[in-house]
Amino acid sequence: QKLWRPAAIKGYAYPFIDSGILRQTLPYLTSLCVFSYGFTEDGRLIPPKTDDRWMIGEAKANSVRPELTLTSLNEQDQFDNLLIHALLHDEERKERLIFALLNEMKEKGYEGLDLDFEYVQAEDRDAYTRFVARLTERMNVEGYPVSVALAPKTSDDQRGILYEGIDYA
Length: 169
Hints:
The chain is α/β, with parallel strands linked by helices and 169 residues long. The protein contains five helices and six strands; from the N terminus they run βαββαβααβαβ. The protein starts with 9 loop residues before the first strand and ends in a 21-residue tail after the last strand.
């Protein structure tokens, strides 16, 4: 016997998306993940180059949850696992980033956080897991759900930089 469960459908979009395409897509989504915010080496938030407020408004007008997507993109718009490493091993940077995220989400009206860190180093696996737990706890206290984007994994012992730094369990 199969149990019915509602599906949550997320869509990622850059703030420079054509507004007509966004409006056509929103009725099919549960959440709109605005792509993306990055961060600096010292833990400051890097917003998208194009204003994202209009997307948040469109999402809410269509009963879709707008989510801030935090990536490991650096100031050159490249995924940077050294940036992740530096963040994960510095309490002050983590606190600065979490504080900045909470402020940005409150100010702009985001209703959730999607974490999309690419290329977490294998040696950072446990530190990343602790960071996700801490970030989730802080966000949940403020009423924000947190999701983590993951590369598809086909086995427990799968090798590769997309998998080894992530504790899928």
